[in-house]
């Protein structure tokens, strides 16, 4: 039987190329996911992570082989790995974003074994995305998880479950739905003789007491790989599937399907695998994107997988948090994994929260030689084989982002994607409308500061804004307001274009990049949130599109000053809100009620409010009072927000995203700190040094003391392997200190 053993603890690491004979004392103990170097969040050089490092793991078998094979599975190591077991080279893998495995079985010792990896994290021109300049950093390290996998000589190498819910009316039940599941299973056999087997599909439905829904049998030839399909079609026995819940954005229901492989006796279990799948129908048509038959305008953002300090080595909790931020804080319905396959934890969470995903292969504008292209094609395969059970994924990106046309390569990537997954469409991101259309969806980066009428449909805008208007969270107010309005204008425009299926802005979070891009400090400030995932005004454009029934949103795009804008004053004042009406108070005086600005933004579901009450009498040097906004939905006041006119930092706040972490040596949570006014608003020009102290079984990851600019930032806490209570205290001159407590369990 199959056993999966997590293999992330007790690694040894050296930031150098060490031989197989180097003593353990040349290494330091680490836990995966691991970054080859911890860096400041900006002002560093990409050369700093570009080196060869060595990872070593000593182990005795966690359980006996009992005739099974043992594989080591790497989920992602940046960027080229050579893996050795007990002094022998097992193999090499070129690529930082896709999984790879090696069979250890024939090289194992009876007692202790030594696995060693030589990891090359230099920007290798022969490995995508490199060969030319790239607007993002790859960082280094075994930055995703590793596991050991025991399997029988005959085992399943992939299980692709294709659930489908169809209307199957009968005269007695005209709205009857029928479920249909097909699983495509790939096998590998290293056994000496052919094997008669039975394959079984189990569907875990409380409504269906007999969980086994399909069985089939056949022969697997010795030493061969093969594929087989097993299918469950509606039978009269269970012909009413009305109890099945669809996977929707609001209720992303998932079902567990298990596939079991038995020996010919039908009872000796050889292998078992599971998939959490969703019944959903997702399709880009010429006139729009349809989810379960309903037309939905897509509104989203691009996400890079990198974080401050730790590069790409973020544990599951941080990956999942990003999906929550994009869905719940930003109110998006789609995310693009620019520009590579991302962590399974991020994708799992997208499945769980109902966030659609456009996933693509690694690259940036450049196509290399034939070997390089062969790697790209192989990445298409690895990406799709890894991720095709995710209900959230609705489109495969099978072009190198913004590369020029290459008919042979992209004909091949499309054909492979369709072969591996006939249920999903393909896209391929380009920035010119006359590009050869080989995919199913014309995915287009539109940097016209508008939305160009499509020449090809189905049409999806996959980027806009970005470098056209980089904006820092400590930029002057007018720039931050204009940044927000650019997102609002483009989302508004695409909403009014029936032949545009949606628009995915550049981008969710500021990200580290090469010197050829960004603001010189190795950050591209293109995010609607900063690198710590904290909002700029542009984030509020997205957030304010959330249904007010989910939660009311009321976000003024101002720091409420008399003299920060050119000419002073705050006229006009934009407020991003999903309320029907807003009442504006200056001090105690009501300045009236306002409705959304449907003239400027006719097609956004929740147009921004443009408040012009603060005109001539509210200029530079005139008397100044606090602002209060009250939001109304359906005639009732549901939310209010105040801003202080005094500009005085009242408090240093410190909040942890989580109050409990796993004692596994890898788990992390974010600690956000802010300098705020008396109403809790961040003060963007409150420049100060914030110092942190930590007690208990965890470490701080981040700059300490932190020279705060922009009024908000974050550091992280990483758990050790010892349970206990952790206290972190933050302090800043002239202010209170703030404390959080986290339990490590
Ligand atoms: C695009 C590119 C992105 C990013 C963006 C900046 O051309 O695809 O990766 O560089 O520009 O606006």
Would you give an account of this structure?
The protein is mainly beta and 745 residues long. The protein has five domains: 3-149, Sandwich (Jelly Rolls); 154-277, Sandwich (Immunoglobulin-like); 295-543, TIM Barrel (Alpha-Beta Barrel), CATH 3.20.20.80; 554-640, Immunoglobulin-like (Sandwich); 651-744, Immunoglobulins (Immunoglobulin-like, Sandwich), CATH 2.60.40.10. It is built from six helices and 46 strands. It has a six-stranded antiparallel beta sheet, with no helix packed on it. The protein has a six-stranded parallel beta sheet with strand order 25-24-23-22-21-28, with helices on one face. A five-stranded mixed beta sheet has the order 39-46-45-41-43, with no helix packed on it. The radius of gyration is 27 Å and the shape is globular. The model has no long low-confidence stretch (mean pLDDT 94). Beta-D-galactopyranose binds at residues 135, 338-339, 401-402, 445, 463, 466-467, 506, 526. Beta-D-galactopyranose binds next to loops.
């Amino acid at each position: 039987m199959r056993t999966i053993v997590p293999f992330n603890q007790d690694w040894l690491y050296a930031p150098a190329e060490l031989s197989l004979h180097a003593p353990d004392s040349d290494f330091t103990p680490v836990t995966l996911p691991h970054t080859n170097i911890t860096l400041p969040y900006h002002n560093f050089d990409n050369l700093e992570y570009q080196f060869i490092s060595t990872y070593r793991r000593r182990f005795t078998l966690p359980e006996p082989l009992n005739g099974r094979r043992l594989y080591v599975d790497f989920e992602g190591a940046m960027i080229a790995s050579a893996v050795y077991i007990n002094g022998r080279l097992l193999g090499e893998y070129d690529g930082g974003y896709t999984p790879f495995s090696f069979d250890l079985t024939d090289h194992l010792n009876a007692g202790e074994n030594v696995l060693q990896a030589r990891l090359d994290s230099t920007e290798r021109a022969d490995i995508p995305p490199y060969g030319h300049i790239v607007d993002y950093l790859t960082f280094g390290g075994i930055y995703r998880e590793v596991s050991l996998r025991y399997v029988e000589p005959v085992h399943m190498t992939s299980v692709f479950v294709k659930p489908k819910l169809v209307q199957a009316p009968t005269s007695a039940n005209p709205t009857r739905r029928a479920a249909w599941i097909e699983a495509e299973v790939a096998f590998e056999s290293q056994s000496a003789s052919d094997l008669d087997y039975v394959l079984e599909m189990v569907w875990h439905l409380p409504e269906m007491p007999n969980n086994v829904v399909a069985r089939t049998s056949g022969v697997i030839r010795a030493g061969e790989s093969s594929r087989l399909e097993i299918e469950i079609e509606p039978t009269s026995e269970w012909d009413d599937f009305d109890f099945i819940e669809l996977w929707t954005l609001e209720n992303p229901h998932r079902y567990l399907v298990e596939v079991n492989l038995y020996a010919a006796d039908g009872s000796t279990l050889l292998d078992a695998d599971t998939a959490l799948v969703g019944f959903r129908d997702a399709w880009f048509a010429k006139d729009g994107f349809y989810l379960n038959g309903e037309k939905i305008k897509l509104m989203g953002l691009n996400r890079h997988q990198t974080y401050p300090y730790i590069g790409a080595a973020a544990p599951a909790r941080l990956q999942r948090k990003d999906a929550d931020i994009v869905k719940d804080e930003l109110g998006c319905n789609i995310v693009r994994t620019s520009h590579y396959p991302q962590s399974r934890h991020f994708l799992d969470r997208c499945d769980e929260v109902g966030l659609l995903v456009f996933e693509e292969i690694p690259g940036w504008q450049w196509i290399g030689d034939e070997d390089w292209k062969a790697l790209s094609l192989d990445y298409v395969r690895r990406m799709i084989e890894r991720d095709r059970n995710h209900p959230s994924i609705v489109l495969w990106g099978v072009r190198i982002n913004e590369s020029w046309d290459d008919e042979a390569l992209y004909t091949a990537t499309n054909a492979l994607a369709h072969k591996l997954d006939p249920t999903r469409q393909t896209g391929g991101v380009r920035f010119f409308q006359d590009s050869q259309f080989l995919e199913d969806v014309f995915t287009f980066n539109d940097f016209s500061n508008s939305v160009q009428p499509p020449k090809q449909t189905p049409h999806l805008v996959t980027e806009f804004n970005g470098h056209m208007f980089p904006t820092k969270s400590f930029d002057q107010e007018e720039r931050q307001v204009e940044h927000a309005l650019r997102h609002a204008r483009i989302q508004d425009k695409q909403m009014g274009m029936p032949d545009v299926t949606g628009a995915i802005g550049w981008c969710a979070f500021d990200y580290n990049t090469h010197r050829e891009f960004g603001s010189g400090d190795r950050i591209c400030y293109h995010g609607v949130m900063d690198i710590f995932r904290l909002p700029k005004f542009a984030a509020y454009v997205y957030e304010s599109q959330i249904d007010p029934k989910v939660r009311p949103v009321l976000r003024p795009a101002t720091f409420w000053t008399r003299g920060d804008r050119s000419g002073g004053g705050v006229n006009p004042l934009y407020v991003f809100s999903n309320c029907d009406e807003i009442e504006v108070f200056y001090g105690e005086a009501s300045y009236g009620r306002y409705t959304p600005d449907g003239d400027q933004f006719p097609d956004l579901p929740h147009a921004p409010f443009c408040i012009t009450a603060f005109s001539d009498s509210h200029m530079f040097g005139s008397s100044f009072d606090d602002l209060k906004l009250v939001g109304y939905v359906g005639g009732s006041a549901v939310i209010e927000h105040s801003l202080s006119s005094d500009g005085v930092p009242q408090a240093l706040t410190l909040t942890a995203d989580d109050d409990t972490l796993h004692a596994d040596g890898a788990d992390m949570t974010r600690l956000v700190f802010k300098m705020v006014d008396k109403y809790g608003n961040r003060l963007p020009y409150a420049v100060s040094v914030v110092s942190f102290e930590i007690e208990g079984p965890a470490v701080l990851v981040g700059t300490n003391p932190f020279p705060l600019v922009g009024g908000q930032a974050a550091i992280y806490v990483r758990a050790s392997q010892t349970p206990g209570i952790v206290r972190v205290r933050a302090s800043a001159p002239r202010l209170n200190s703030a404390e959080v407590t986290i339990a490590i369990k």
